[in-house]
């Protein structure tokens, strides 16, 4: 479980001081809940996210254990350091928008024809409750040749899960190398 602290002050100076001490600024919010202004050790947060196996994970902030998902993050445009993260509380029975990762399984045959495998969408936005949320979309990509794509309409969505992207948007594909 990821441990965090509750921020007392929201001033610019306090935020800069926390960042200097190695903290990542975070906002935790949810429908009908009061916002929690928190901070996590940056290195611990990154290690935890790299090793997590589910979309939703638990955090302990100020003695409260919350099940959250990463909704958005901000990076420094120059150094690519993580500056800020928005965490949404995954409440049971409440429909919300989640970003589900996409995984390609297999090796496309287009790679032998000098093609290049591309993820057009690494995460697909879906609207559902946390109970129906899939861990990831696993796509079989063995049959993809140069110029072939798997589109949003080809995704197998579980019951109660909706995707509001245009059905013609490609998710993964093999493009011709130059």
Short description:
The protein has two helices and twelve strands.
How would you portray this structure in words?
With 178 residues, the protein is mainly beta. The protein is built from two helices and twelve strands. The chain has helices at 12-20, 42-51, and strands spanning 2-6, 23-29, 36-41, 57-61, 64-75, 82-89, 96-105, 115-119, 123-128, 137-140, 149-151, 170-176. It has a six-stranded mixed beta barrel with strand order 1-3-2-6-5-4. Strands 9-7-10 form a three-stranded mixed beta sheet, with no helix packed on it. The radius of gyration is 19 Å and the shape is globular.
User: By helix and strand content, what is the structural category?
Assistant: mainly beta
- Mean of residue pLDDT? 90
Largest β sheet strand count, sense and barrel closure: 6 strands, mixed, barrel
| End-to-end CA span | 46 Å
Classify the helix fraction into a percent range: 10-25%
| Number of DSSP-assigned strands | 12
Query: How many distinct helices?
Result: 2
Order of helices and strands: EHEEHEEEEEEEEE
List segments where confidence is low: pLDDT < 50 over at least 5 consecutive residues.
Answer: none
Q: Give, in spatial order, the strands making up the sheet with the most strands.
A: 1-3-2-6-5-4
Beta-strand content: 35-45%
In angstroms, what is the radius of gyration?
19 Å
Shape: globular
